[in-house]
Aldehyde dehydrogenase family protein (Salmonirosea aquatica), 1058 residues
Amino acid sequence: MSITGKNYIGYSQSAENAKTFQSYVPVKHTHLPETFHPATAEEVEKTMQLAERAFDEYAAIPASQRADFLMAITEEMMAMGDELLERAHQETGLPMGRLQGERGRTINQLTQFANLIREGSWVEARVDTAQPDRTPAPKPDLRKMLVPIGPIVIFGSSNFPFAYSIAGVDTAPALAAGNPVILKAHPAHPGVSDLTAQAIVKAAQRTGMPNGVFSMLYDDGYEVGTALVQHPYTKAVGFTGSFKGGMALYKMAQERDEPIPVFAEMGSVNPVVILPDTLAAHTESLAKTLAGSVTLGAGQFCTNPGLVFTLDSPALDEFEKIYAREVGKITSMTMLTEGIRKNFFKLRDKALAEAGVETLVLSDEKAEGENQSQASIARVSGKDFIKNPNLHEEVFGPFSLLVVCEDSIELQAALKHIPGQLTTSLMADAAEAAGHPQILRLLSRRAGRFIMNGVPTGVEVCAAMHHGGPFPSTTDSRFTSVGRDAILRFVRPLSFQDWPDSLLPDELKDSNPLGIWRLVNNELTQDAI
Amino acid sequence: MSITGKNYIGYSQSAENAKTFQSYVPVKHTHLPETFHPATAEEVEKTMQLAERAFDEYAAIPASQRADFLMAITEEMMAMGDELLERAHQETGLPMGRLQGERGRTINQLTQFANLIREGSWVEARVDTAQPDRTPAPKPDLRKMLVPIGPIVIFGSSNFPFAYSIAGVDTAPALAAGNPVILKAHPAHPGVSDLTAQAIVKAAQRTGMPNGVFSMLYDDGYEVGTALVQHPYTKAVGFTGSFKGGMALYKMAQERDEPIPVFAEMGSVNPVVILPDTLAAHTESLAKTLAGSVTLGAGQFCTNPGLVFTLDSPALDEFEKIYAREVGKITSMTMLTEGIRKNFFKLRDKALAEAGVETLVLSDEKAEGENQSQASIARVSGKDFIKNPNLHEEVFGPFSLLVVCEDSIELQAALKHIPGQLTTSLMADAAEAAGHPQILRLLSRRAGRFIMNGVPTGVEVCAAMHHGGPFPSTTDSRFTSVGRDAILRFVRPLSFQDWPDSLLPDELKDSNPLGIWRLVNNELTQDAI
């Protein structure tokens, strides 16, 4: 397949805009030849009209056929072979091995949602049968299930060209649930977006999905995203990226005549707390593990551990020495975009210049011609950390701050200054952890995921994963973007009162033809009624 | 017990404000002697500090003890006997029979949540066990469950002094989940609020709950509500009332440094569609049923059917005649507050003066000395309805507009002008309904609950109830305020990665000591691991 550079409006391609942009190649600090056309206002309108028209038809398609569509996407993506991976590599500078793994994860996400909707119990069917003879008033028959909500606008993320982009963690559940999807492609990887969109369109066509079930639009500015979020047909928004970007979309969505839900995952400093006995017992392995996590993917993960807390204790010197040595060993790393690189060095330098911050490892900013970074780490006292809000914020990239507290009281005070996080981690064995209930509570309350004796990087795609967290890590702590429950962002319950069995959706019919788990008169069962 | 008129700040009573207000008695258009003290800014601050301190302790109390607390509330409320009902009657003008029923429903809600948390499966536990030998990377052990989020601010509603007020549909699930609750009492019934608060405080004390698990503050203005919603310790808001009130709180919550979820249920016109064959077959019973529903509780229900759609058909004349006769028969009804009565007549008169609106039954506004209304109904053509947005809005009180459409096409066009609703209803047998798939889709998409051959008034408290709906009926179509799923508004998922079994909450331990349903490696089971 070849890159068209055109917007994918349902089954049509469209390039009305004379203005174009090109892909940036971070490893070579150059651009690729293909041109991409930002969507015009008319193209946005056409896209939304098509999505709205597709909604009723798509929502009514049996789940098994929607599952076929999702699996067809995986087949079309795999059929593109190395072409897809190579383009992703060119546009992101991420290593081929990592991209292969990420594609695998994306295929896995689509497959899990296909399986979820094939099985069917995810709709949380609840049936309360009628009691016509109840006094003083008869009880009606009530049945409830989750239903799709309408066209969903999704923003591709820069740091995961597959798993959080065109066919990623927002698209898979939104399509699985029965909603049309409109993708705003991330300008950092338009070519891989183009190819992935072609895979989705081809999959939709060959599995008989309605025209408009999927569209993808380009923009290297903010106009298309704004128009999509403000469009009255849009019913929810999915976003992964910066705090500034996420909040801009969130505010925009709340200011509409009809406010709509925005799930924005906006990053996190992912504090790691190391308790002293554990620091003493595992000094070297902790230092090495943390060094690996801080520098993984050039630190460009929302789960990057940006703050490491510990207590002043005998093992600390040795830990710092090994930690600095290991971080210093990491060779230079390509960053995703020029903007991310520049911002990294700006924020890192700002952090290093704050009062009381002592540099442990300082990487050099390479020449302009190379979009590279090296890891830096620094150290600050709990006291200085507590009084300086600038140190509580994320530095996106390979940087981490070691916060050394005098005692457990100061550590608790420091943790109280940390806002909501995707993850928190505690390095402690069961006995030492049990001795610090306040630390456990403080870390629990701030976290979407609380890890014991592990680093936050690495987000498993499974039912028990919660990839979300209290504000400001996301805009709504009640939802996740990873795992089966990610579908809950894009559905709503609908109750059916006193419906004739013949008109009810299969999920709610007496005979339970799909054999799903249902809560019938408050008992979970797969039985018919 | 006697009414204190003081704010209930945890286990203390406080009346710092020199300003006071009194209860209005709608049936007599007079006031009761007791004075109530709006909370001061200092009292609000003290309340929130106490709630925040109570949170960690309360969240850690075993569910069985929280269930005891909820059941103790029911006992204390029942122990107040007729005193509570009589005060409610004085302050609302609602008939004693209705209030007795409503108290029963409130007790039922508390009991259902006590049972829900005693059983325990509501936490949606998910366990994915580790695969240490998986390649290329080992899979960690991940477990997830719903946890409370912190202090919840709840606004009592004017039209249900028990079921949607101090111990009502928001308080019961918020407390059940493990969150402290701060009630802003509705100034329309401060006395019954005072008594109910005493019941809750007494129940909390005798079941050993932490001081601050529940507080209740007065205000007959907006200051206290504003301060509560803006307070940084507040983590979510529950509200039932007007569109204007709900949206003011929603905007306020979004403009905080940390935006928080607001579930505002803001009313609805609850459109009812009658298809022609069914109109012909059941002319008289439909007219009588609708007349009863429009006038129930003086029309002061969020589920009042404010719009009735039908097609011009042979049975229409007869239907109109009986409908008008039945509505005309209803004797005058007391309205809850002066403000509600005045607003009702203002909006009704405005609707009746719109182009093409023909009055079918017109009630008179009684003298100032009586806070009474009588039901009014009117008729308009589909054509006039479609072009006039003023007719699409709610008139809170006993008013309903009959919209007569020329044909099914015009009916569909009219329904497209209706925004989101708590309920929609279709009067049609299975065969006739099946012949109108577009009508079914239009009504489904706009509804939280879709009723066949029944009126929207009457909200059953059960698992399959969805009392919510697309905007503007609520601020978030994904949540309900009635039924077991109402608890989902006030919790969030938390993942535990690689935790030692001894430190995990009981819900997630290998042995499953609570015997709850869990999703273990994608299979629902009550078994241990």
